[in-house]
Specification:
four-stranded antiparallel beta sheet; 263 residues; 11 helices; alpha/beta
């Protein structure tokens, strides 16, 4: 059976720089983390997965459908949603309004429904509000529903981003450094939430993460990139002890010549 998400031979070049070289990645269920030193190509890979960058070579499929050539909004409509390394909330909107924006791809209203504000519009609006409150409750922000997003503490803004992503009803969620800037306690709470989402909603999740504690505790599988190439993949403890992974992170013997060749 084909994987839910399957990327094969993904290659991306920026001028003379090869950012990704023939990267394979597949996920059927659970949580997979993509790790690697700064500049390893992790966010570039996410950008290709979600239609922000075109790949030069390779293929990416979701539920058997090819994604190359689709716009980001079309990919979201298929069931893939992401968050970004830098928080991208609508800062001057309320918390619940941010979540409602995330539901846009799932709203089945025509122009006349919106203009007339008829019964169908009223029912839909009430349903969306109920769903938004439920999502805020799931991430622990129900009490902040009417707060302006920019006034939330940093960790709560991260959780709001997650709620907004969930609002699009994804089957696959891509999170780019979701614990960045969080305290240890906040990161621990997020890890528990991600596991709940997998169990309760059947979500598959791909993380880019620098916090190795998070990676080791929450991941079912870890993929390691270095200089745009996949150098290791497997269970967290196995990857953690891989000699090539240790070399990539610590810069031990052999890394400098490789870096010169890739430049």
């Amino acid at each position: 059976m084909a994987a839910l998400f399957d990327a094969r031979g993904v290659t991306k070049r920026f001028g003379g720089l090869t950012a990704l070289q023939a990267v394979d990645f597949a996920l059927e269920s659970g949580i997979a983390s993509i790790i690697g030193p700064n500049g390893a190509g992790k966010t570039t890979l996410f950008n290709i997965f979600t239609g922000l960058y075109p790949a030069d070579e390779g293929s990416v499929t979701f539920r058997g459908r090819a994604l190359f050539g689709l716009r980001p909004d079309q990919i979201t409509a298929l069931g893939i949603c992401r968050t970004f390394q830098n928080i991208r909330l609508f800062a001057n909107m309320t918390v619940i309004e941010n979540v409602l924006v995330g539901m846009n791809s799932r709203i089945a209203l025509g122009l006349w429904d919106v203009l007339s504000h008829g019964p169908r519009f009223a029912r839909t609006e009430a349903d969306l509000s109920t769903r938004a409150v439920a999502l805020l409750d799931r991430v622990g922000l129900q009490a902040n529903a009417n707060d302006v997003a920019r006034n939330l503490p940093y960790g709560d803004q991260r959780r709001l981003e997650l709620a907004r992503a969930l609002a699009s009803e994804p089957a696959l969620l891509l999170l780019d450094e979701p614990t960045a800037g969080m305290t240890r306690t906040e990161a621990g709470a997020l890890m528990r939430l991600l596991r709940e989402l997998v169990v309760d909603l059947g979500l598959a999740i791909i993380l880019i993460e620098h916090n190795m504690r998070v990676v080791m505790e929450v991941s079912d599988r870890v993929t390691v990139l270095d200089h745009g190439e996949k150098i290791a993949e497997g269970p967290p403890r196995e990857v953690q002890s891989d000699a090539r992974v240790i070399e990539a992170y610590l810069g031990t013997r052999g890394s400098a010549p490789q870096r010169a060749r890739r430049a």
